[in-house]
Write a structure and sequence with these properties.
The structure holds 2 protein chains of 2 kinds. Chain A is α+β, with helices and mostly antiparallel strands. Chain A is about 15% helix and about 35% strand. By secondary structure, chain B is an alpha+beta fold. Chain B has helices spanning about 20-25, 55-65; strands at about 1-10, 30-40, 40-50, 70, 75-80, 100, 110, 130. Chain B contains 2 helices and 8 strands; from the N terminus they run βαββαβββββ. The chains are: A alpha+beta, B alpha+beta. At the A-B interface, β2, β13, β20, β26 and α7 of A face loops of B. The complex binds iron/sulfur cluster (2 copies). One iron/sulfur cluster binds near residues 98, 116 and 120 of chain B.
């Protein structure tokens, strides 16, 4: 069953009975995950080159690793293009089988004499291409609004003046880490649905944090996250989509689903969480500071209704992540598990049970207390 | 006073009607012909109409009653269903409430008929599914 379908079952039969009937519950999310990118290996040219700078369709990739390895970050922008095309588009174009231009320059060494190369390449021609996303599937997220009298363009979309709208970005009751809020079953090595193919949880996500206030068992602030890895060659543009966030930059929409084995009654209670019981903080994104004040907390049920009330005003809401796709992912994962084509794996190592996320201060070397 | 843009198509039988003249005279509207063409199948006219909203409505009603097919330029706003992820980012932006999140499926539907071709949703749609193409 999916995390959505299971809600009614638990409501009618209770968690204890439901836990006996259901072995696995599937989750899904599909939203902008800036912290994404792909490792690529191009193979060696004749004569070989130690790539020092590399561009794919004009988008720079990081190649400060071995000679023909590179990492293309989703948010990297094409040079001189004014934010229309970026790393996310390169990734989507690769998946859809398009031919990309590859350009690299180097200083030349005795073993790698070539100084530049210009060629064409497709995903099939690469030796390895895998997504490696440092921070995906955030457990809960913020709701963004704007108190000023001008339009703001943010990573939370276009925010209309005077609290003209509010945007949010979480699959709520279908979101993977909301359904296993303490990560009892999700850990390093957990096999997941990633971008239409199979992936794995490879590490705790960056900015992983367990310190947020908890309501109804789930954190009410951005909390845990996972780093994931998966073969780009097996992915589909149905679940990996380049995004252009006007006035902000480029991002990648990633479709991700995690199966949650129902270990016990408590696990069953967790996966039965409903949008009504999950709360997110509303922030004023015109405050250009890392510590914005929480204006209020609203539930995902309210957010999904299309309106919330803010200071007595009726404010229209928009989701930035797709609940439609999240559902599709949870259903697809469910079907693959039923068919036996997707096997569950036990984590080899749990994610941290306690961890906080630190800010960055501006300090002198002497100012650092050791 | 508001301005709206329409594409009018008429059959050969009504090409000779003094349509624009009557629109100006009877309905007190200002017309700005943006593009026109006539061939054996009839004529096409892209026109900007300026006037009181109620008069525009009456004028358009007159056109339709005289057999002219009238389409508002919102017909040129389109949604690429393959690229649309049904995220819903457009919903709170559209002043005409042309987008609807369907209750059962959570699919986002675009109601062209409500669209006023303002263009606000174009840059809001991050997968670039919304297009505004006049020509
Ligand atoms: S913003 Fe674009 S992708 Fe999202 S629902 Fe609207 S049309 Fe579809
Ligand atoms: S062009 Fe304007 S009115 Fe039409 S759908 Fe987009 S936002 Fe709505």
């Amino acid at each position: 069953m999916t995390a959505e379908e299971v809600i009614d079952l638990v409501e009618s039969r209770g968690a204890k009975e439901a836990a006996k009937e259901v072995d696995v519950v599937t989750t899904g999310t599909f939203g902008a995950m800036c912290s994404s990118g792909a490792f690529l290996n191009f193979g060696h040219s004749e004569p070989p080159i130690k790539m020092q700078k590399v561009w794919l369709n004009g988008v720079p990739a990081y190649t400060g690793v071995a000679a023909v390895d590179a990492y293309i970050g989703a948010t990297e922008l094409k040079e001189e293009d004014n934010m229309h095309y970026g790393g996310a588009h390169v990734i989507e174009d690769l998946i859809s089988g398009e031919v990309l231009s590859l350009k690299a320059t180097s200083y030349g060494t005795d073993c790698y004499p070539r100084r530049e190369i210009e060629t064409s390449i497709t995903l099939d021609m690469m030796n390895q291409a895998y997504l490696f996303n440092p921070r995906n599937a955030y457990q809960n997220y913020a709701v963004a609004t704007n108190s000023t009298d001008r339009i703001l363009f943010t990573y939370m979309g276009k925010l209309l003046p005077n609290y003209g709208n509010a945007t949010f970005s979480s699959a709520g009751q279908l979101s993977p880490l909301m359904n296993d809020p303490k990560c009892r079953t999700i850990g390093i090595g957990t096999r997941i649905f990633l971008g239409g193919g199979v992936g794995y949880v490879s590490w705790e996500g960056t900015q992983f944090s367990t310190t947020a206030p908890v309501k109804n068992g789930v954190p009410t602030r951005p909390s845990r996250s996972i780093a994931v890895i998966g073969d780009l060659k097996k992915m589909s543009t149905e679940y990996i989509r380049a995004l252009t966030l006007h006035g902000y930059g480029i991002s990648l929409a990633v479709g991700l689903g995690v199966p949650i084995p129902i270990l016990d009654e408590e696990m069953m209670e967790s996966v039965a969480i409903r949008d009504e019981d999950i709360f997110a903080p509303v922030f004023d994104y015109s405050v250009q500071s890392r510590s914005r004040k929480v204006l209020t907390e609203v539930s995902y049920a309210e957010l999904r209704s299309g309106h919330i009330e803010l200071f007595g005003k009726d404010v229209k809401t928009s989701s930035l992540s797709s609940y439609y796709k999240a559902r599709q992912i949870a259903n697809e994962l469910k079907k693959s598990i039923e068919k036996g084509t997707f096997l569950l794996s036990e984590p080899v190592q749990a994610l941290p049970s306690e961890k906080s996320s630190k800010p960055l201060e501006i300090r002198s070397k002497e100012g650092v207390k050791i | 006073m508001t301005k709206r843009k329409f594409l009018m198509s008429f059959t050969p039988s009504i090409v000779n009607e003094p349509i624009t003249f009557r629109m100006v005279k009877d309905f007190d509207l200002m017309l700005n012909i943006l593009r026109a063409g006539v061939d054996e199948r009839g004529g096409k006219l892209v026109i900007e109409i300026e006037g009181k909203p109620s008069q525009i409505k009456k004028g358009v009603g007159y056109l339709e009653s005289s057999g002219v097919e009238v389409k508002e330029l919102n017909e040129y706003v389109s949604k690429d269903e393959d690229r649309c992820t049904s995220c819903g980012a457009c919903i709170s932006i559209c002043p005409a409430e042309a987008f609807e999140m369907l209750k059962e499926t959570y699919k986002v539907e675009f109601h062209k008929d409500r669209c006023i071709a303002c263009g606000l949703c174009i840059d809001v749609c991050s997968p670039n599914a919304m297009k505004l193409e006049i020509w």
